[in-house]
Amino acid sequence: MTENATAARLDAAFAEAGVTGWLHAVDIDSGAQVGTGADQPVCTASVHKLCVLVALHELAAAGELELTEQVECPPTGRTPGPTGLAAMLDPVRLSLRDAAYLMMSVSDNTAADLLLRRVGLDAVNRTTARLGLTRTRAVYGFGEMLGTMREDAGPDGARALTDPHVITRLRALDPARTNRSTPRDMTRLLGALWRDEACPPEYGAAMRRIMGLQVWPHRLASGFPFDDVHVAGKTGSLPTLRNEVGVVEYPDGGRYAVAVFTRTAHTAAVLPAADAVIGTAARIAVDALRAP
Question: Which residues form the Beta-lactamase class A catalytic domain (predicted)?
């Protein structure tokens, strides 16, 4: 199948699911690639936690911090969220690497901001710049980003997020004003991580392990329902946005970095078709890369 034909299939899958989608997929070893809208600026949402993860391990590799360093997390002042430390009620003490596990496996916002306080946004941006991700930038911490949504939503708060007119004014949904990247930048980051170009091998292995422990099976992984195919990824979600980036590894040694970003006009929090098309589109792309 030609690259144009693959792009047409991807666009058709996104349209059938009722979303606008942008995708880039690359064979990590050969460099063969397919995509649609691969250079479109997109809001990363929690996908940007992957950049925090890499910056953390880069600093550890440079001897600027220890991954076993302990941090305190009191109950007050936690970044809101439905998972991990954000949902807990009591004081917690844990290591930086365990906070990284929570940040990636269940997208824990509190854990992410704990790490950002230790690492800093500037370090995250230095890491992505060093790796050549010229269109990737962290503007806010995760609590700050949620704070812009509260400000922009106005006095009706979360209820206003079902109003399409309110959605249009959210800074968090505007790539020019929030944490951003492109699908191609994200697959470049994943490729560097899987080839041990982002950090020395022991740190790369630690990050790949954490990414393989993500608990969500309903997006990227849904396209690869096989016991012998391994998917490691990171999701990201905001009102109308559903994203995931990750690596799909086959038993024959094939490994493919995939980045899928979607947006829909529907403001409903639950849209199974919009989640599932991320896996469908990723499978179309990887099948095209694996075709003889």
Answer: 23-262
